[in-house]
Every structure is written in C-alpha cells, then in structure tokens.
Amino acid sequence: MWLLMLTGFAEKLLYAFSLQLLTSLWKILIHLYSPLGTLLWFACGKRSSQPREKIEGKREEIAGDEDAAGVSVNPVSVNYHFTRQCNYKCGFCFHTAKTSFVLPLEEAKRGLLMLKEAGMEKINFSGGEPFLHDRGEFLGKLVKFCKKELKLPSVSIVSNGSLIRQKWFKDYGEYLDILAISCDSFDEQINALIGRGQGKKNHAENLWKLRRWCADYRVAFKINSVINRFNVEEDMNEQIQSLNPVRWKVFQCLIIEGENAGEDALREAERFVISDEDFEKFLDRHKAVSCLVPESNNKMKDSYLILDEYMRFLDCTKGRKDPSKSILDVGVEEAIKFSGFDEKCF
C-alpha cells in the first residue's frame, strides 16, 4: 500500500513538474512568435469588429471636440518683420515700406521674451531689409539676445544680402543659425526688371561672397526665390547646385491687397503673377535639386506666423494683411487668435 501511495505521489509530482515546464516553454514560444502572430492576424484580414466608417466617424467626432474646445495656437516659429524699409524695389514685394516705424530695442526685446514664454522656439528676422536699420546693429543685438539670453534653438535672417559686411559676422555670427538670401535670378538683366538691380553691383555674384562667410562663421546658408513672369523660364539648376545651400525655398509670386495690389498699394504685382501650371513646370525643371522646398500661394498665406513692426500678428488668409492688436498691449495668447495661422499647414 505504501508503495502504491509513493507511486501515486511520484506520478503527481512528475505531472506538475512537466506541466510547469510546458507552461514555461509555451510562454517563451508565445513571446518569440507574438510578432509573427500579429502579422498573420492582420494578413488574414482580421480587423476590429467595428466597421471602418464607424471608426473614422469617431475620429472625426474627437477632432471636432478638440476644435470646439478652442485649442490655442503655439507661436513655435515666428517671422518678425521689424522694419518695412528696403534699399531694393522688387515689383512683387508683399511687405512694402508703408511706414518707417521701428520699435525701440528694449521694447522689441520685451516682445521677444513674451513670445519665448508663450512657446516660441524659432525666430526669423525679416523686413523690408533687416540690415538697413542702424547698419545692421539693431538686428545684431536682437539676434544676440535671442540666442544668448532667450536661448532659442533657431535664430535666422532673411535678407537681400546687399548690405551685409564681414564685420557683422565677426560681431554677431556666432549667435546666428541660418542666413537666407533672396535671389530670384542669376541673370542681372532679369534682376533689374524685377527691381533687384543696384547699378554696377552684381546681385548674383554677391551670393558667393556671402556663401563663403557663412561657411567661415558656421552659419547655415539658404536661398529664397520668388518665381514670377520674368524668371519662370530660367534654368537655375547649375548655379543652385554649385552654391549648395542647405535649403532652396521657391515661392510662387503672391498678391496681397494693400501691399502689391489695389489702390493703396505701393507695388503693382499683377504683371509678375504666374499660373499654378507655370509654377509646377518650374518645379519640375528643377526636380533634381534635392534641397528645393516649394511654397505655393496657399501655403504662403496660411502657414506663417507674421509679426509686423508694431508686433501685431498679420492675418493673410483673405488676401490682405489684417493686423491683430500688438502683443505688447494684449499679450501673445490674445493677439495670436487673430493671426489666421494654420498650424496643420505649418
């Protein structure tokens, strides 16, 4: 009898040990083959029991709830046009010299600090021509403030390049991340027709000097081009690839009521306008340029946070520039509600 009891106990012990071993092995196999099982699950067409339409409808409902909640826009990337004055007369300019106002330096710094506290990570200084006011010193001090004091990850400038001197790079180059130079043509006759001609100075040749300085002072070099009726047939492949910018932004000529079109405008850009089809042809001709980034009219109007010389956000969505109140008066959160900024498009 004792023998039978011992035998039975041994069998149960062996069974338990075997079961535990098999269970451990099974867990290991499940762990190893679970990715494969997932793939097989989907490959066999296994889906959620809910119809696709119902799932998509739920997503739209959630998105609608978020929109209704009024999610605030964050000023992550801001374009500050602190001056409207310029030494060029580009016929399609959409931020013309309608005023000569420039904020005092300390007020401009106060506004930039407010933007940083509201979430700004990138600042781009533009104009007008930003190097024109105080021979670039005002600009240099703002660049230094944004990088050294505000510690912004990205500080950039858009300029026509004609007034930049090497001394500026020596004084402020270490605080600048990106310099974008506007160049619409490598043919000086076309530049003269556009309004970028400056007598004996060669706008295109100046690019090479600026390119070298950017390399010397470790500043990323970009090129911006506005495609219009006078340069739409031009082939810029060779020159752009030789200059090798980190980015070549190609803009479609844009009409803005009150700036370059209409009774109160200082420019008449209608004669520069090209069709969407012509713009696409230009892009196709330069498709081999890997750094090319196209900007159609729709993208330009909605995807930029533009701050004018009074630190007002400009809403360009209706084909004109409707200003908000200044952030210096009402704060960033209130002013940005009237910016027309499309965060999804950005």
UniProtKB/TrEMBL annotation:
Entry keyword 4Fe-4S: yes
GO cellular component: endoplasmic reticulum membrane; lipid droplet; mitochondrion
Xref: SMART domains: Elp3 (SM00729)
Claim: DNA repair is one of the keywords in the record: no
Reactions the enzyme catalyzes: CTP + AH2 + S-adenosyl-L-methionine = 3'-deoxy-3',4'-didehydro-CTP + 5'-deoxyadenosine + L-methionine + A + H2O + H(+)
Cofactor(s) it depends on: [4Fe-4S] cluster
Domain Radical SAM core, residue spans: 72-292
InterPro entries: Aldolase_TIM, Elp3/MiaA/NifB-like_rSAM, RSAD2, RSAD2/Viperin_antiviral, rSAM, rSAM_sf
A family per Pfam: Radical_SAM
Membrane topology, record value: Peripheral membrane protein
Signal peptide location: none
PROSITE patterns reported in the protein's UniProt record: RADICAL_SAM
Top-level taxon: Eukaryota
Any one of the GO BP annotations: defense response to virus
Keyword annotations: 4Fe-4S, Antiviral defense, Endoplasmic reticulum, Immunity, Innate immunity, Iron, Iron-sulfur, Membrane, Metal-binding, S-adenosyl-L-methionine
Ranges annotated as spanning the membrane: none
Gene3D superfamilies for the chain: Aldolase class I
Compartments in which it is found: Endoplasmic reticulum membrane
Chief place where the protein resides: endoplasmic reticulum
NCBIfam families for the chain: viperin, viperin_w_prok
Assembly and oligomerization: Homodimer. Interacts with IRAK1 and TRAF6. Interacts with FPPS. Interacts with HADHB. Interacts (via C-terminus) with VAPA/VAP33 (via C-terminus).
Listed name of the protein: S-adenosylmethionine-dependent nucleotide dehydratase RSAD2
Taxonomic source organism: Phascolarctos cinereus (Koala)
Gene name, Swiss-Prot/TrEMBL: RSAD2
